[in-house]
Amino acid sequence: MTIAIQTRGLGRIYKSVQKGAGDITALEDVSMDIEIGEVRGLLGPNGAGKTTLVKILSTVLLPTSGTASVLGHDVERETAAVRPLIGIVFGGDRGVYWHLTGRQNLEYWAALYDVPVKEANQRISRLLERVGLGNRADHLVETYSRGMKQRLHLARGLVGGARILFLDEPTIGMDPLAARDFRNLVQELRAEGKTILLTTHDMAEAESVCDRVALIDHGRVIAVETPRTLSRLITQYERIDFECDHDEVLNPLREIPGVASVMPLPEERNFRIDLSNESAARTVLEMLIAAGVTSIRTSRPSLEEVYVHIIGDRGLKIR
Amino acid sequence: MSVRRVLQAGFMVGRKDIAIFWWNWKVWLTTWILRIVTSAATWILLGRLIGSEERVYFLLIGNAVIVGPQAAGWVVSSSTWDRFDGTYPMLVVAPTSLAPAMIGRTSIWLINGILTSLATFAILVTLFRFPLRMPDALFAPLIVAVVCASSYGFSLFIGSFVIRIPSTRNIVHNLATTMLTAFCGVSVPIAFWPGWVQTVTTILPVTHGLQSMRLLLNGGSPAAIVSGVLFEAAVGLAWLTLGILTMDRMADRGRRDGSIEFV
Asked: Among the four A127, A214, A234, B26, which has the fewest Cβ within 10 Å?
């Protein structure tokens, strides 16, 4: 079996608690396959259905339509078989016992996952070292920083021997360094063959750790591609960014066949050329070099741009 | 799955819970017990004011016993703490049933109830020079333990509902302990209440155990004492069983209606 997670026509409708208000469709007709060892990102705005999908797959929530299975076990009918295989990690400060030490937290969950005591003790020490909490293992969690709590969260998700990890916005509120360390841990877990489903708002995070990304909105999956392929949804060809302190080169560039646009960037004296023809890149680069431009880079659209392009820029609005 | 290990692990969390309130036994004794004894003594002094020693002893036994179930009743509130800790969804999806983890964590309040009642008994008996029949009185701690355990089962049952609406935990806790205190023969004899209330008290904790305690300390027949204790234990066991079943049922309802939040 190569499929870790499979959903077919998965849906979830919440009954409204307010009189007269209609039911809320949180998830609609979601069909996807996630391979064993894959890191799948789930990207979407607030209320898009990301957490609902994770809740169903982790057996916290029952679907109202469709089916979902984890390593071949139906999440609705075979919950007892699914639960030992999965671990949940979510962002924020909660989900760990603050008045226990890091080690005691893991001992507690190891007992609930029936990990034999001797094995649990070894695994707990290993995990604490791995997440960088070895020297704080016997300190109360309430003395931990947010990043440390998050790392303990990850260790907690792994202490039961999970083969599939659900990470629900795990780096939310972390400082950039802690988030980078966390991503490194995720990449190590992928190297070990763990399957990971990661919901995030952080495009850089999705780009750096995900094999494939599913864009989800209004409860439906809009696209599932590699981050690189998704970027091609905006432009098929590379684009060229450069820094230049004389404007006279801009008009000749616009005349080159295959140049779609030459636009200023927010940074002063920085410009971007979008190409509509791959063969134009060589001519553009030659002209820039001839004009004495030395700061040149080629790039593809970031996932953030893809996200805004496909989902739309809604500001603070949620659905 | 080792239920005993899960109970022990849960108990570790419970021990830390109680340490938030009282850091050590000295703090427990000088704050919690002092408050409980003061409150109970006020009732007993009211009995003395009325001028009947018999009433004084009635109030003393009733109030010394009820403080145990009142303290054990904290189970109602503590059942919801995993919701506030954000650990409830992970308990629901853990391979083990919810009950051992919840019982493990909340059982510290049962121990607190037993110790509270025994300490209050010891202090009140000394303060009011209550004549203890020896060696019969040596069985009093056993009855206290059964009454507290029975009340724990009842509170766990209530707590299994309150998990779904954690904001009601303190109201429900107070209503439940008030009901036991008012109707189960603590300060007012059960016979005072209308017939239907008396009928209801037969399935509530405290009622039978407290009657046994009164019989024990007043030289009642051993058969009546044992039968009351067994009734008390049976009532408690029934509530505990219902509580365990309800706990998993409520988690299933949460999975259906989507009320189990991640954070």
From this structure: B26
- pLDDT tens digits for A243-253? 888 778 888 88
Residue B9 to residue A108, Cβ atoms within 8 A: yes
Enter the pTM of the model. Answer: 0.83
Kindly state whether A24 is in contact with chain B, defined as any CB-CB distance less than 8 angstroms. no
In angstroms, the CA A90 to CA B88 distance is: 13
**Considering the domain boundaries, does residue A201 fall inside one?**
yes
Taking the alpha carbons at both ends of chain A, their separation in whole angstroms is: 37
Residue A306 is assigned to a structural domain of this protein: no
Domain that holds residue A274: 239-300
Cβ contact, residue pair B93, A114, below 8 Å: no
Are A246 and A173 within one domain? no
Q: Is B96 on the interface with A (CB under 8 A)?
A: yes
Q: Answer whether B4 touches A (CB < 8 Å).
A: no
Q: How confident is the model at residue B158 (pLDDT cuts 50, 70, 90)?
A: very high
The complex's ipTM? 0.88
Domain residue spans of chain B: 3-257
